Amino acid sequence: MRRHQVYCISVSRTAAIIIIGDEILSGKIEECNSFYFTRELWDLGVAVRHIAVIPDDVNEISETLRHVSGKYDFVFTSGGIGPTHDDVTIDGVAKAFNVNVTRDPELEKLIRERFDEDSVGSALKMSEVPEGAELIKENGLKFPLIVFRNIFIFPGIPEYLKVKFEAIKERFREEPFHVRTLYVKMFEADIAPLLENTLKRLKDIKIGSYPMVVKDGPRIKITIESKNKAETDKALNFIKENLDPSVIIKIE
């Protein structure tokens, strides 16, 4: 549970993660791509501000992407770019920005080289892109990543998604987040006023408090996060100075 926090959007580039697939919403497949994206982007200094799971529906994909593309710096989609009838992410992107779906010659060549005559017909669907899309071929990617405007279109299979993201992730790197963590023996309600006072004094930080269930009494994990290391350290020191040393378990 997150409480007592303020976001400093102005100092970070922001991202939205859109997971596409009926199989996720029906519980057939466990969703793990949003966790991977969020962790990796945070390490790169990009703040994830929105995560959504939506069905394989062209209209819903279109509406969602039109909204988040205009609100966040980057949009990462996962799923819906295979060869079957329910792979409609490309159609959704095209509809969102009123462009045509076109077959990319380079992707078509790759697919024809990879598939035999019996299966190439269906596989050619994977050569379709929104008109005006860019292909990213960094670091030896065997199959390019499709990018349209600020939307990065990834496959849903986690292993393939990770390979593609690892190949391009350095383009997103910026000033990292600086984090300090404090563990205390207190009830959350007792420390809430101090956390709120800390936020009033130092505006460029985010503080999160996370109650922990243990047998021998209350425990709280407190995280202090900022792109300004000095502010992070100031916030930690202010909290420490206003706590009884006996309630502090450890500091990381």
Summarize the structure.
The chain is of the alpha/beta class and 252 residues long. It folds into 2 domains: 12-172, MoaB/Mog-like domain (Molybdenum Cofactor Biosythetic Enzyme, Chain A), CATH 3.40.980; 178-251, 2-Layer Sandwich (Alpha-Beta Plaits), CATH 3.30.70.2860.
CATH class of the largest domain: Alpha Beta
Order of helix and strand elements from N to C terminus = EHHEHEHEHHEEEEHEHEEHE
Helix content: 25-40%
CATH superfamily of the largest domain: MoaB/Mog-like domain
How far apart the termini lie comes to 20 Å
Strand order of the largest sheet: 2-1-3-8-7-6
Helix segment tally:
9
Which residue ranges are poorly predicted, with pLDDT under 50 across at least 5 consecutive positions? 1-10
Q: Given the C-alpha coordinates, what overall shape results? A: elongated
Largest sheet: 6 strands, mixed
* Strand runs, count: 12
Average pLDDT score: 94
At CATH level 2, the architecture of the largest domain is 3-Layer(aba) Sandwich
Structural class: alpha/beta
Enter the CATH topology name of the largest domain: Molybdenum Cofactor Biosythetic Enzyme, Chain A
Q: How much strand content do the residues show?
A: 25-35%
Compute the CA-based radius of gyration: 22 Å
Q: How many discrete structural domains?
A: 2
